Amino acid sequence: MKYRNILVTGCAGFIGFHLSKYLLDTHEDVKVIGIDNLNDYYNPLLKEKRNEILKNYENYEFIKLDFSDWEGLVENLKDKEIDLIVHLGAQAGVRYSLENPWAYIRSNELGTLNIFEFARRFDIEKVVYASSSSVYGGNKKIPFSEEDRVDNPISLYAATKRSNELMAYTYYLYGIKMVGLRFFTVYGEFGRPDMAYFKFTKNILLGKEIEVYNYGNMERDFTYISDVIGGIVSAIEKNFDYEIFNLGNSKPVKLMYFIELIEKYLNKKAKKKFLPLQDGDVLRTYADLTKSEKFLEYKPKVTIEEGLKRFCNWFLENRDWLLKI
């Protein structure tokens, strides 16, 4: 790999953890500097578990840091040799953005500005950053292509992610290579407890109701974590000045089938509570991968059946502490 010293923001988050672990497992000459504020948006135990695994690697350095704090960011990182930033840290969650909008502006807007400005001031060659399929909003054209207009977000979270893409373009004008990745419903082991698949699994095992929105009439382009990591690594290794790519599975899954699979792998039926569509939710996501296949050579391999089987097996093996989250 061309880059030797990689800063990963949100290193104790779901995708940040898996990327850091992959880089450390596969590249002995790569050092990962990870920053995370270990906030309590969801139970910090999971972030601590992820981070403890990473701390077993000699080439991993962790700094507890909130990147929305400009002075703290500079003070902690100014003397580090960093030649690539993978910016995965963010305030996640569509629904929570309806309750606490300030957290999204602080982390996703100010925080991302700080990361991009740090790259400019300290002559970092390239930034790969996380965007989201939520930027497509309620677009009717299916599947979602990077060429589509994305001017109608239906949540503040989506608006901040679209703003990040526009902000990235202005920093590309300074000569920094900027690559944005629109993730489509990423799932897998060590995933986020606020995501539906995690909550469904936990509540089914506990014998609690699961909340099924829009009465189950929804579809999601679920993307397994290892496929997403492959896409990120390709975006790191290939040379682009400014691009945005979809990273999805391009196979939308009906919500009720998704629940049936979890029931099958847990060998337990769910108690379902059917509810109307929530504010901020979209009915369907579906990634057009034409551009990603051409330029990133991105080809997702893990089916929803295989991915959920792996997740459920992992959950069952770790149920003692996962059920407490």
From TrEMBL:
The keyword Metal-binding does not apply. Residues 6-248 form the NAD-dependent epimerase/dehydratase domain. It comes from the Archaea. InterPro entries: Epimerase_deHydtase, NAD(P)-bd_dom_sf. Pfam families: Epimerase. Keywords: NAD. This is NAD-dependent epimerase/dehydratase.
